[in-house]
Structures are given as C-alpha cells and as structure tokens.
Design brief:
about 250 residues, alpha/beta, Rossmann fold, five-stranded parallel β-sheet, four-stranded parallel β-sheet, globular, binds D-glutamic acid
Length: about 250
C-alpha cells in the first residue's frame, strides 16, 4: 500500500516517524509545502486551495490513501479533499480525539488543546470533544512554538518563556498536541505541566486509528519514504535525517 502524506512543511515528519515505526505502508510519499508554510495564520479558503493543489501532485503517485499530517489542513480542507480524491483521506483531528477518549475516562477532566490559529479557530477539536461528553476544555493558539521547533529549540529559556506566556499557572489533565511540531517539545511540556499530564500525539493517534479503521497488513519490507517539497527539498531531507535517522 502506498500512502500520500501531506503537510504544510517539515513538521509532518513527526507523523511520518510514527507511521514508519509501525511499518504500515510499503511506501510513503511525503509532500511538504515548504514554499508556503506556515498554514496556521492563513484563512480557510487559502488552506483549501493549497491542499487541493497538493492533492493534484499526489495523484501522480496513485496513492491508496491520503493522510493530512497537518492539523490546519485537517481542520479546514478534509471535505474538499474527499470530494476530489478517489481514495480515502484521513486527517489527524478525529484520531487525536479518539486516542484521548481511550486514555481518559473522566469527562470532567480539564483538556487543553494547543495548535495554530487556523486549527483552534476552526473549533474542530472542541466540537468533537464536546460530542464525546468532555466539557472542561481550553483551546489555545500557540503559534510561537512552530518557529522555535524549526530553530531546533526543544528546551531552555526561550521555550520556557513562551510556555509561561501561553499557559501561566494552568495545569490541565490532558493536552492535545494539535500541531505537527509539538511532539518535538513533549519533554519541555511534560516538565512544565508535570509528568502526570497526558499528552496526545497526532502521529501515535493516527497509527492506532488506521489500524482500527483500515485493513492494513504491515509491509513485508521496511517502508520506503519519498520526500518532496515545494521549496528547498534538500532542507527537508536534512531534517528527515536528523528527526528520523534516514
Ligand atoms: N503543520 C502545521 C499544523 O500542524 C503547523 C505549521 C503551519 O502553521 O503550517 O497545523
């Protein structure tokens, strides 16, 4: 099986990492729209337009499934992508909520959703969580974390200042990492909120979701990863080497 994996830039490699670890596909074709990243501050129509352009690119590879690693795309463009694709299109938001519900039974638990402005303002996570009975929800756009991660700042003073700025003395029971980049600051978030806080990672969530929803038999050989970017593919390949070791 061949999966197309779409992100606004390099961040979706965190989702690629989880997919590769579980060897779900023979091949993953990754496209990062590095020329136009970030999608987070853009409006819905722009995100839809860029996503449909990515879909046209992927069609050349005849994929069996399209996974949108990008939360901002998952929040805004899934209906249009599904209308225009002849294969299933899966986003990361529903899998994240399903994963949270499996791990957290207490509907009164305080859940913090963090993501880009596009993701938070779409209310997609909030609506799905409410449908499942969670009501103590805080949703916060935390876009500063995106450039910090891209600068490979995963710990230290600047990151701590950004966490203080966004979270103050908030101590949620669970945090949904609603952005591709945030799994890379898991350790910093854990030490800020405390080790007991449950963190939901889109990559791990989507692996479980795919295993449950689709008849996937693990690939015999390890997954081939093909990387494409709309600008500077060499940079994407370098980051892949550092984050994925390949
Ligand atoms: N990939 C985006 C997301 O998960 C973060 C970076 C961006 O703003 O494009 O929402």
């Amino acid at each position: 099986m061949r999966a197309a994996l779409f992100d606004s830039g390099v961040g979706g490699l965190t989702v690629a990492k989880s997919l590769l670890e579980h060897n779900l596909f023979d091949e993953i074709v990754y496209f990062g729209d590095t020329a136009r990243v970030p999608y987070g501050p853009k409006d819905k129509n722009t995100i839809i337009r860029y996503s449909l352009e990515a879909l046209e690119f992927f069609k050349n590879f005849d994929p069996d499934i399209l996974i949108t690693a990008c939360n901002s795309v998952s929040a805004h463009a899934l209906p249009e992508l599904r209308k225009n694709a002849s294969f299933p299109v899966v986003g990361v938001i529903e899998p994240g909520v399903v994963a949270l519900e499996k791990k957290l039974q207490d509907k009164d638990a305080h859940i913090l959703i963090i993501g880009t402005r596009a993701t938070i303002s779409s209310h997609k996570y909030q609506t799905l969580l409410k449908k499942r009975g969670f009501h103590n929800i805080t949703a916060k756009a935390t876009p500063l974390f995106v450039p910090l991660v891209e600068e490979e700042i995963f710990e230290g003073e600047i990151l701590e200042a950004a966490m203080r700025h966004y979270f103050g003395d908030m101590r949620p029971d669970a945090v949904i990492l609603g952005c591709t980049h945030f799994p890379l600051i898991t350790e910093a978030l854990k030490s800020y909120f405390g080790q007991k806080t449950l963190l939901i990672h889109s990559g791990e969530a989507i692996v479980e979701y795919l295993q449950e929803q689709f008849p996937l038999t693990p690939a015999k050989n390890s997954t081939t990863l093909k990387l494409f970017a709309s600008e500077n593919p060499e940079k994407l390949k370098k980051i892949a080497q550092s984050w994925l070791g390949r």
